[in-house]
Amino acid sequence: MEETVYTFLGSIFGHGEANVVAHVILVAIIVVLLAKMATKNLTIVPKGMQNVMELFLGGVISMGKDVVGEKYARKYLPLVATIGLVVFVANMIGIIPGFESPTANINFTLPLALVVFFYYNYEGIKKNGAKHYFAHFMGPVPALAPLMFPIEIVSHISRIISLSFRLFGNIKGDDLFLWVLLMLVPWFIVPVVPLVLLTFMAVLQTFIFMILTYVYLAGAVLIDEEHEHKRDDIVEDMAEVATI
């Protein structure tokens, strides 16, 4: 029989797929409660959870402004902020002994990556039209289209793997590290430094997932600006070659 690590929910639902689903539901409940706490008593001068949530949303908008501009940063704020909250809470509960991170399971991270993949492609087609959107897969120079198109297709599909496996692999590794640590010493005397490191990694992986979501959205909706920069680079390269 495969050995599993004890979890509170696992003792109730079993240490299998039901355990993962139970932790996903727990994450959803925590995120909803945080949102309720932040919006329960809204005040002009924020305090408590409202202040924390406003700082978080302001940080998400600021991060998005540098990638896709303020207009689109605010437009896609609900998606990116929700993903950020879900991923952060899912990462953090695994640090608490007796719980397991849903993000340490590929069956959780893969659907998140697919949501981002389908949404940014949908937004790109919606804004630019299907013909213009898929035309940018062929590169800035028509002669390179037979080479560029399959490369772009593979590149976009690989984003699903990149998003899901990066988050899954890092959090799974963190969980294994914590499990080994708990086997060596009781949980109540676990050194603070490893817990701080695990918390930092949970925040870092949340940030990476959010910023990549913005980057992929920027590449989908800002096609004209992207092509313009590519054409300028090609012209500059040709000019440099001509002067040699």
SSE blueprint:
Layout: H1 8-13, H2 17-39, H3 49-68, H4 70-75, H5 77-93, H6 106-128, H7 130-135, H8 145-184, H9 192-221, H10 223-243
Helix pairs in contact: 2-3, 2-5, 3-9, 5-9, 6-8, 6-9, 8-9
Number of separate helices: 10
What's the order of the H and E elements?
Answer: HHHHHHHHHH
Q: Look at the helices and sheets and give the structural class.
A: mainly alpha
Q: Please tell me the overall pLDDT.
A: 84
Q: What integer value in Å does the Rg equal?
A: 22 Å
Give the beta-strand count: 0
Q: What's this entry about, in short?
A:
With 244 residues, the chain is mostly helical.
Key phrases:
244 residues, mainly alpha, 10 helices, 0% strand, globular
What does this structure look like?
The structure is a single chain. Helix 3 crosses helix 9 and helix 6 runs antiparallel to helix 8. Mean pLDDT is 84; it is low at 227-244. The chain is an all-alpha fold and 244 residues long. It has one domain. It has helices at 8-13, 17-39, 49-68, 70-75, 77-93, 106-128, 130-135, 145-184, 192-221, 223-243. It contains 10 helices and no strands.
